[in-house]
Write a structure and sequence with these properties.
The protein has 229 residues and is an alpha/beta fold. The radius of gyration is 16 Å and the shape is globular. The N and C termini lie far apart (36 Å). The protein has helices spanning 30-40, 62-74, 92-98, 109-118, 170-178, 193-201; strands spanning 3-7, 13-17, 22-23, 50-56, 79-85, 124-128, 131-136, 151-156, 180-188, 204-210, 217-223. 26% of the residues lie in helices and 29% in strands. The longest helix is centred in the first third of the chain and has 13 residues, at 62-74.
């Protein structure tokens, strides 16, 4: 499917899929959305020494980049395992055009951003001391086949339900839950009633929060029972 580069309202860019009429990020600001949903309401609420992140959709790599930015500012005393799944990687030309690194001030940000995309799939790499990165070129439903560390933070950043409804239904949430530890946090830009009901059925404590700019609400969900296998 053809993808176009679009500039969002905070000056950062995103990808747009014409055939699906779907953006990878909010048109109100790609970076502000990522930082609001996954850092402010995600990473900053996890206090374990070892932080194991499961990202549902590596996509442009923006969520990984904002996480690294936060790690370099505040979290060097923690051990990070950043694990992400992506079936349809972006290409080299798109990576250069997106140019997210220009929005971050940490040293070698462009080099790190490109490295995230260039690293070998299905293999763990130590990006910084105690920051480990693994990306799988697999379908989300194949997560159940992979042996992961007990996940305590999920970035649930799949395409919207209007274009991929199966990613917002119970079977995939059950798979994700099976990889999480008790007290693990799932954060997502979605606030759909059906998603809240599914998460509650799976024994998550669900909270509606203020959404990123241009979106009224989003969801945090904390797993209330041990389920990791």
């Amino acid at each position: 499917m053809k993808r176009e580069i679009k500039t969002t309202l905070d000056g950062s860019k995103t990808l747009y899929i014409n055939d699906l009429d779907e953006h990878y990020h909010s048109h109100n600001g790609a970076i502000q959305e990522a930082e609001h949903v996954f850092i402010k309401n995600g990473l900053k609420n996890v206090y374990d020494y070892e932080i194991n992140i499961l990202e549902m959709g590596f996509g442009t790599g923006l969520n990984a980049l904002v996480t690294i930015n936060e790690y370099l500012k505040n979290d060097k005393n923690h051990v990070f395992h950043y694990i992400t799944f992506e079936k349809y990687p972006v290409n080299d030309e798109e990576i250069l055009e997106l140019n997210y690194a220009e929005h971050f001030k940490f040293e070698n940000s462009q080099e790190i951003y490109q490295k995230l995309h260039e690293l070998e799939w299905n293999k763990t790499h130590e990006i910084f001391p105690n920051f480990f990165f693994t990306k799988y070129n697999l379908d989300f439903f194949q997560i159940k086949e992979i042996n992961l560390p007990a996940i305590n933070l999920v970035y649930y950043d799949c395409f919207g339900a209007k274009v991929q409804p199966d990613l917002w239904e119970k079977p995939l949430f059950e798979i994700v839950k099976s990889k999480m530890k008790e007290g693990g946090l799932l954060t997502t830009y979605s606030s759909k009633g059906s998603v809240r009901r599914i998460l509650k059925e799976l024994n998550f404590e669900v909270t509606k929060l203020e959404g990123p700019k241009g979106k009224r609400e989003m969801i945090n969900a904390v797993l209330k029972e041990p389920s990791y296998k």
